[in-house]
Design brief:
The chain contains three helices and three strands. By secondary structure, the protein is α/β, with parallel strands linked by helices. A three-stranded parallel β-sheet has the order 2-1-3, sandwiched between helices. The radius of gyration is 13 Å and the shape is globular.
Length: about 80
């Protein structure tokens, strides 16, 4: 399985030393022992959806969307979500 941790920011590039980038990096490090994963940052919803369409066409993929107002997931909830 491959997991892409995706986010949308208004800026063209998110600094790699930002708090959000640090959290994403930590999460990717923790997930990497279970699945191939990476993080992707997009400047618009349209660009993210284009990526999602191409990514979802591959077998055994999951895309995790981060949203500022989204529902937090525990490790158990996340595991249940990705099956």
């Amino acid at each position: 399985m491959r997991i892409a941790l995706c986010s949308i920011t208004e800026r063209k590039a998110t600094p790699r030393n930002s708090p959000a980038a640090a959290l994403a990096a930590e999460y990717i490090d923790r997930l990497a022992q279970y699945a191939e994963c990476d993080d992707r940052n997009f400047t618009s919803e349209e660009k993210l959806l284009e990526f999602a369409a191409a990514f979802a066409a591959r077998a055994h993929t999951q895309i995790i969307f981060l949203e500022r107002t989204g529902k937090p997931l525990s490790s158990e909830d996340f595991a249940a979500h990705i099956g």
